[in-house]
From TrEMBL:
GO terms for cellular component: cytosol. GO terms for molecular function: FMN binding; oxidoreductase activity. This is NADH:flavin oxidoreductase / NADH oxidase family protein. Residues 4-330 form the NADH:flavin oxidoreductase/NADH oxidase N-terminal domain. It comes from Paracoccus tibetensis. Pfam families: Oxidored_FMN (PF00724).
Length: 359
């Protein structure tokens, strides 16, 4: 684990170590999509992680799919994120806001305008979505027109500009976990026969155009992108061509000289190693369910430059200190992951308090 604690430079800015916080949806935004005031406390508490990738944040009303997720497309959103950025920067950490357009992975009842969800093709995800009236099937989305695609690219770029205006150090484009950009990459979700569908070379076009547009507006050093090759989630089932699709995508992305590539690793070690070779920049790797003892293994093996963690960071505001001193970790409470108030959000005890409670 000693490999975790060496400094690193990402996007031209220094990090004190190689451990970062991955984006995690918490469902606590205000009704208009402005981050809740407690969000500044939540992220500020975890600033010891150095690089904080904020929860999935919709770049437009069309991009929202879940209840109470934050946005970054109005002045009120910018003001809310400014408070978060100030809290993080006060503790000398970096804040990247993840831009997440859910595509078909949502429900119209959860959006401000109640319009049909957008996707590369009119194919339902086959999953249930939580709404104010309980769980409901994600409905069949509307296939995006060429105009929808152009507007969505504009929306991503405008949201990135607003994120920088809010004081964020950058944005992470979410092209993973079954959401819109991932849907374009997957043959079972993308049945288009135009320039954005068909063979693998055309299916990568939309994510590449989003990344290029965002990098042009705010500078590539302020842009990361997250992918999840082969991850079966949200109705996505990528087949034998997965390595070909992602190696082409990553080679093209590498030319943009982005701040980092963030990979959610689904288990194919050979594919991860090949993407490491194709990507000429900082690589962040996230392994869901990774054991505490294995956190630094990818860095030691040269597979990653930085590793990200989710639940451990959610439940342990002082995670770095706990790992360095081999102290016990708080267990995350799944019942408070989404929605609610301070409980399970900003009230996880630090080491001293936890020790006192045990005593």
């Amino acid at each position: 684990m000693a490999h975790l604690w060496s400094p690193f430079t990402l996007g031209g800015k220094p990090l004190p170590h190689r451990l970062a916080m991955a984006a995690m949806t918490r469902g606590r935004a205000l009704p208009d999509g402005t981050p809740h005031p407690d969000a500044a406390i939540y992220y500020g508490q975890r600033a010891g992680l150095g690089l904080l990738i904020a929860e999935g944040t919709q770049p437009s009303a069309d991009g929202q799919g879940y209840l109470s997720t934050p946005g970054i497309y109005t002045d009120a959103h910018v003001a809310g994120w400014q408070r978060v950025a100030d809290a993080v920067h006060e503790r000398k950490a970096l804040l990247f806001i993840q831009l997440m357009h859910v595509g078909r992975m949502g429900h119209p009842e959860n959006t401000p305008h109640h319009r049909q969800m957008l996707a590369p093709s009119a194919i339902a995800a086959g999953v249930d979505i939580f709404t104010a009236e309980g769980m409901k099937p994600a409905p069949i989305p509307r296939e995006m027109s060429s105009g929808d695609i152009r507007q969505t690219i504009v929306d991503f770029a405008a949201a990135a500009r607003r994120a920088i205006d809010a004081g964020a150090d950058g944005v992470e484009i979410h092209a993973a976990n079954g959401y819109l950009l991932h849907q374009f990459l997957a043959a079972n979700a993308n049945h288009r026969d135009d320039a954005y569908g068909g063979d693998s070379l055309r299916r990568v076009r939309f994510p590449l155009e989003v990344a290029a547009a965002v990098a042009k507006v705010i500078g590539p050093q302020h842009v990361g992108i997250r992918i999840s090759p082969g991850l079966k989630i949200g109705g996505i089932a990528e087949g034998e061509e997965t390595p070909e699709v992602y190696r082409h995508l990553v080679r093209q992305l590498s030319r943009l000289q982005l701040a980092y590539l963030h990979i959610t690793h689904a288990g194919d070690e050979d594919h991860l190693a090949s993407l490491r070779q194709d990507w000429h920049g900082p690589l962040v790797v996230n392994r869901p369910g990774r054991a505490r003892s294995d956190i630094g293994e990818d860095i030691a093996a040269g597979v990653a430059d930085v590793v990200s963690v989710g639940r451990m960071a959610l439940a342990n505001t002082d995670l770095v200190e706990r790992l360095k001193t081999e102290q016990p970790l708080n267990e995350a409470n799944p019942a408070t992951f989404y929605g609610g108030g301070a409980a399970g959000y900003i009230d996880y005890p630090m080491m001293e308090a936890a020790a006192a409670q045990s005593a």
